[in-house]
Amino acid sequence: MGHTLNETVQDVLVRKARMNGYNACWVPGSDHASIATEAKVVQMLEKEKGISKHQLTREEFLKYAFEWKEKYGGIIYHQIKKLGCSVDWNRVTFTMDDHYYKAVVKVFVDLYNKGLIYRGARMINWDPSAKTALSDEEVEHRDVQGKLYYVKYLVKDDRGEMTDDRGTQTPNYVIIATQRPETIMGDTAVAVNPNDERYRHLKGKKVIVPLVNREVPVIFDEYVDPAFGTGALKITPAHDINDYNLGLKHKLPTIDTLNEDGTLSAAAEVFVGLDRFEARKKVIQKLKEDGLLEKEEDYQTRVGFSQRTNAVVEPRISTQWFVRMRTLADKALEAVNSGKVKIHPEEKFIATYKYWLENVKDWCISRQLWWGQRIPAWYDERGICM
Predict the structure, then answer these.
(1) pLDDT, tens digit, for every residue of 110-145?
(2) Are 99 and 106 in contact (CB under 8 A)?
(3) Same domain flag for 62 and 197
């Protein structure tokens, strides 16, 4: 239905242009849809031929991918013909055609030479199903019913109850509310707000991370909202963008407890190899057995899903290629603000346009896939990317 609507609107516009005397050319083309197509080909190989992608060379895999593309890409063109769309069938273009491929590489090199493309280690969106990085635009956020788990973090060297300077009795543990108990093993600090009097007694203290018994510091930062949960946060720099930024600010270590496929890594120390959601169940069970789970409650939250595979997206620190967007966004914003470019209807979309461009982030453009244009980079004998 989407194709029918899209192609009909374009056909109306191009025919109207010709009726107005313009020599309008409509070029039919198709996108290689890298993540979605590779995922489909991988599924087809496993289901129909019993072959894993990793049993093949890249060239062998691409042979199967092009066969799949010819079959299903042909269906799209057949739909366009059945609709009677007035396209120029002598100009059919595919985004993996040689001339198109060369144009992509040329633009990449040009942007790199202008300083608009760079390679670096940053927090990105990771699809554990496709095992690739995603751009922000490839992540769909949905409201889901989750849970908050209230977990006890014991304060080091304190026994029983202790008394603060006002004579108030305080427990020898801190309760932290978390949506993701399976990442507890990657905690490297506990954070509280410096103005929150409930936690004044924790200055200079350390707490024990459950399950792995790691000592981590209590840090004070105004980022922490005293009204959320218990007012104390577990800081897991490898698995949350806000925690990552706090980790940089307070010079905290980073412990990545997840493999690229969403299973627990050796760094997790416990439940290694289990899928992250299965590990969540095991962690909750173990916390209960250890008497460290205070309670759990229903909680409405927003979760990011991969637009292509529907997998729950993981924040992940990874070395990728990025486009610097600030300079480009400022030019696009100025074009609209100056009136050079008009948006219709203005009252409905101008605010959205400005919000997008004023809050733009650098665009992650690299993918860990075989199906798609290859980034024109090479590595020296030491394995360093040049």
Answers:
(1) 999 999 999 999 999 999 999 999 999 899 999 999
(2) no
(3) no
